[in-house]
Automatic annotation (TrEMBL):
GO terms for biological process: amino acid biosynthetic process; aromatic amino acid family biosynthetic process; chorismate biosynthetic process; quinate catabolic process. Homododecamer. It comes from the Bacteria. It is an enzyme of class 4 (lyase). This is 3-dehydroquinate dehydratase. The keyword Zinc-finger does not apply. The record marks R18 as: Transition state stabilizer. Its EC number is 4.2.1.10. The gene is aroQ. Belongs to the type-II 3-dehydroquinase family. Catalyzes a trans-dehydration via an enolate intermediate.
Length: 148
């Protein structure tokens, strides 16, 4: 089994009620169910969310140590957290994929969302496709599964 960590940052626990015009009407449990139900063969998906930067960094450290691929929606931390960026860099510098995902397209929104301090060290970035972005990221990981 290939384990994949799907990590979600601050305020994503409020999906469903938070700005549904931007993020849709489905909540985090619906995302978890979608990804678990549609996990590629041989993949075990672990969906987590936290509002706490230090907890998110701890999960990335554990991903480095266990060489677990990561799908990361850093939420607002995307735009300013150098601590998170450095932790994410530990993952990709170890040769473990880390895919940055955004439900919305930050580039089509406020100017402060146009900057990502994560993208420069991410393996790749998917944005603007709603929950489908996570599935696209999983699909990519399944395509490269022989290298994981
Ligand atoms: C987000 C975009 C961020 O700008 C925002 O702060 C979020 C969610 C997205 O998934 O579209 O919380 O990462």
């Amino acid at each position: 089994m290939t384990r994949v960590l799907v990590l979600n940052g601050p305020n994503l626990g409020r999906l469903g009620s938070r700005e549904p015009d931007v993020y849709g009407h489905q909540d985090l449990d619906a995302l978890r169910q979608l990804l678990e139900t549609n996990a590629p063969d041989g993949f075990d998906v672990d969906v987590r969310q936290t509002d706490d930067e230090s907890e998110l960094i701890g999960w990335l450290h554990a991903a480095v140590d266990a060489r677990t691929p990561v799908i990361l929606n850093p939420a607002a931390f995307t735009h300013y957290s150098y601590g998170l960026r450095d932790a994410a860099a530990l993952v990709t510098k170890a040769g473990v994929p880390l895919i940055e995902v955004h439900i919305s397209n930050p580039h089509a929104r406020e100017t402060f969302r146009h900057t990502s301090v994560i993208s420069g060290i991410a393996t790749g970035v998917i944005a603007g496709f709603g929950f489908d972005g996570y599935r696209l990221a999983l699909d990519h990981l399944s395509r490269i599964s022989t290298t994981l």
